[in-house]
Amino acid sequence: MLDQPKLDTSPKVSDEVRKTTCYMCACRCGINVHMKDGKVAYIEGNRDHPVNKGVLCAKGSAGIMQHNAPSRLRAPLKRVGPRGSGEFEEISWDEALEIATGWLEPLRQEAPEKLAFFTGRDQSQSFTSFWAQNFGTPNYAAHGGFCSVNMAAAGIYTMGGAFWEFGQPDWENTKLFMIFGVAEDHDSNPIKMGLGRVKERGAKVIGVNPIRSGYNAVADEWVGITPGTDGLFILALVHELLRAGKIDLRYLAEYTNAPVLVNCDASSPDHGLLMRDENGKLLVIDRVTGEPAAFDKKGVKPDLSASYEKDGVTHRPVMHLLAERYMGKEYAPEAVAERCGVSARRIRAIAAELARVAFEEEIVLEREWTDFRGQTHKTMVGRPVSFHAMRGISAHSNGFQTCRSLHLLQILLGSVEVPGGFRFKPPYPKPVSIHPTPHCKVTPGKPLDGPHLGFVRGPEDLALKEDGTPARIDKAFTWENPMSAHGMMHMVISNAHAGDPYKIDTLFMYMANMAWNSTMNTRGVIDMLTDTDEDGEYVIPHIIYSDAYSSEMVAYSDLILPDTTYLERHDCISLLDRPICEADAAADAIRWPVVEPDRDVKGFQTALVLLANKMKLPGFTNEDGSAKWADYADYIVNHERKPGIGPLAGWRKGEDGLTHGRGAPNEDQLKTYIENGGFFVNHIAKEHAYMKPWNMGYQEWAVGMGLYDSPQPYIFDLYAETMRKFQLAAEGHGERQPPEHLRERIKATLDPLPVWYPPFEDGHVDPVEYPVHALTQRPMAMYHSWGSQNAWLRQIHGRNPLYLPTKIWEANGFAEGDWARVTSAHGEITVPVAHMAALNENTVWTWNAIGKRKGAWALEKDAPEATKGFLLNHLIHELLPPKGDGLRWANSDPVTGQAAWFDLRVKIEKTAAPDEVHPTFAPIRSPVGTGPDELRWKVGK
C-alpha cells in the first residue's frame, strides 16, 4: 500500500460563531460570523433566521472583504486644502465633535433651518429623524426621494402598504406571479427563495421589464415593455378585466371604497369629495335598507351600484367613476399596444390568464375569522394571483400613478391580503389616517413642532411659510410635489447652491455619495459643492459627511466622521423603521460589534448621540442636564418613543416578567437578542394571518404588539380623496391656492383615480433626435456604492458596457469591442458597448454604480472601474431641458417629487475606441491612499 499524505479532513472551522445581521443589501439576512483568534474567518447564512433561513448570496459572503476593505476610513478628518483636493489631516474625535458643535450649535440657537441633514441607506431613520427633530431643523430626509417614494407612497395612499419591506407574495399558495420593473439588488434572497418555491409548484411567472436579466431571465414569460409605459399597459389589463366582468365584486364592496358615494355636481365646491356622516364616517348605500350608512356599520352590505341624491346633488359610488374611466376606448389594447411595445393580442392573453387563475383556481382555507363589521366567516377565499414591483416602474415622472395603477389591478382581482395573493408584513397594513402629517415650524433653540415627514391629507398640510414659499430646502410638500412623503434628497444641493428657497449654512450627510453616483447631474453637483461667492467663500459654507469608506463624496467635505463597518457597530432594524417582518410574523433584529474596530472610528448613530450630548438637545437630555444615553446601544435599550414602545419589541419588561411588543426597557435586552441569534420573532395565529386590514383578531394582536394604540380597520382607497383636494385647489377652491403656472399640471397629474401620462422628458426633448430610452439597473452583486471596491465582488462586475438591442446594434454596424458616443439633451458619454437580444428594441441599459472616480475607494488609478466603468448619471439632470415657457421644471414626479431617473432619452452613434471612458475627471487624492495589489491575510493558525 502506497503512503498517502496525511490530510486533516475535519479542520477546525472557527473558534466561535457570532450571529448578527447582514448589511450587504436591504434583505437584512441573518448571518453566522465565524471567528478565529478574534478575527473574522468567514461568513455563512443563519439557518434559524426568519428572512433567509440559511441562504446567503455572493454579497453576503463577501462581507468579509467589506470589513477588511483597504478603502475604510481610519480616523476623523479635517479638510486642509480646497474642496475636491482630498487634502485632509487626521484629528481626534474630541476635536471633530468640537468643530461640528461649533458649526451646529449657533444654528440651533439662531436659525435651525440652516442645517440640512440628509441621510442615505442607514436603516435607522426613526433615530436620525428623532435627532433632527430635536435639533429643530425642518430640513431632514433620507434617500427615498431618489429611490422609491413613488412605490411606498402610492401603496400607502391606496391600500395601506406596498411592495419591498411592506409586503410579499403568498409564496406558498400563489399560482401566477407577475413582476414589474424588478432589479436584483433588493430583497434578493427572499425573492430567489420564493421564486424557487413558486416554480417548484409549477406556478407561472411573468416578468414585465424592458430588460431580461435576473428574475426576468427565469420568468416563464417576458414582456419587454417600453420604459415609462407600464401604467398604460396595466390600465389596459384593467380595461379587459372590466369588459369581461372578471373582477371580485364582493371584495370591492366589502373591503374598498368602491361603494363609497362621491359628490358628482361639477358646480359644487365639494365636487369629487366623498360623502360622510356627521361623525366623519364614509357613507355607502346599504343593500338591505337602500339608505346611506357608515361603511363600517355592523351588518351593513355596501351597494356598488346605487346612487343617492341629497339637496339636489347626485352622489354616485366610486365604482361608477372607475368603470366609466377604464372602459373607455383610450385604454383598449389596440389603443396602447404601439406605445407600450406589447401587442393587443398579448395584452388580452395576459388579462385572460390573470382572470382564469384568479377566478377558476381560487383557494379556500378553512379558517374562521371575524371582520370589522362583526360578521364571522367560516373560510378565507383567496385569488392566487400575486404581484411584485420595484424601482423600474417607480423612477419615472409618472411613477406614482403607475404604482397606484398596479395596486388598482390587484385590488380589482381581489388578490390583496388573501390566500395566494399579496400579503402585508407587520407593522403594515396601516391606513393613511394614522400616519403623521409633515411638520415644518421652526423655533430657535427648540425642537421642530413634529415629525418632518408624513402623509398630507390636503393643501392644509403643505410645508409652506406664511408667505407661501417653501419651508424646506428640498421644496418637499409644496405645490410642486405636494405628496413627497420621503423628502427630495436629490434637490438639496442644487437648491442650497441657488439659495432657493433660502441659503443654508451646513450640509450634514451620511452615506449619500452625492458627488458621484447618488446624484443626478454629477458634474454640476461637483461644481456646486466647490463654488464660491464674490467674497471667495464657499456657497455652501460647511459640509459634514460620514461614511465608512473613502468614497467620492469624502473629497468634497470639510469634516469627516468615519463610520464603522457593519460588523463593528450596533444597529437596530426596528418595527419603528424598516423591520425584517414576514407576512406571518412580526420580527426585528440588531447588529452588534462582533469585532472591535482597529481604527479610530465610531458608528454614525453613536456619533450623533455624542453630538446631541454636547449640544444638550432636548430629547437627549435629562431635566438635570445630564445625557440620557451614552451611545447608540444605550439609546436602543432605553429610549421609549412613547410609554412601553421602544426601538426593539422583543424581551421587554412586563408586570409578570419579560414580554413582547409593549413593556418597559430591559437592561439585558441586547444580550438576549445576541443569545437568540440577533433577532426576535412573534408569529401571528393562522386565523389572523390573512385579511389583516379587516380581521379583528389581527387588529387586536397588532395592538398588543404596539403596532397600533387601538384597532385600525379600514378600507382600500381606489379613489384617493387627498388628491382630489389638490385638484379642487387648482380649480380655485379653498384658502390655499397653487401658483398659476402649476394649476393645469396639478389638475392633470393629481387625479384621484390612477391615470397615465407620458414621461415628462418626452415633452421636453425631440423624440426624433433622441429616440432611444436609457436605463440603469443595480446588479445583484452590489448595494449602495459598495461592491466595486470589494475584492471579491469586483471580479464579477469590474466594468460595465452599455447593452444595445439587436435593432440598434445592427443599424449602427456595431461589432464586439466597439464603443459608442451616447448623447442626451444634457450631456455626452463615450463608452464600450455590448449586444443583448433580450432587450426592448428602443432601449439601452447598463449596470449602475460600477464606474468609479479615479483615486476613490482605494482603487488604482487605472482600475477597470475608473477606465472602463461609467455612469449614465452624466447624461441626467435634476432639471428638465427648457421648453420655451421660461420655466425649468424639475426632473421628478409631480406628485411625490421622486427623481425620474428612468425617463432619460438619448441618441447613439458608433465612434472610435478611446483609451478610456469619457467624460474623464481628474483623480481624487484619497485620505487612505491606494490599496495593495493583493489582499492577503491569515486568520488563525
From TrEMBL:
InterPro entries for this protein: Asp_de-COase-like_dom_sf, Mopterin_OxRdtase, Mopterin_OxRdtase_4Fe-4S_dom
Coiled coil start-end: none
4Fe-4S Mo/W bis-MGD-type domain boundaries: 15-71
GO CC annotations on file: cell envelope
Domain of life, source organism: Bacteria
GO molecular function per UniProt: 4 iron, 4 sulfur cluster binding; metal ion binding; oxidoreductase activity
A Pfam entry, by short name: Molybdopterin
Cellular localisation: Cell envelope
Cofactor: [4Fe-4S] cluster
Signal sequence bounds: none
Key words, A-Z: 4Fe-4S, Iron, Iron-sulfur, Metal-binding, Oxidoreductase
Similarity annotation: Belongs to the prokaryotic molybdopterin-containing oxidoreductase family.
Protein name according to UniProt: Formate dehydrogenase
Organism in which the protein naturally occurs: Roseovarius atlanticus
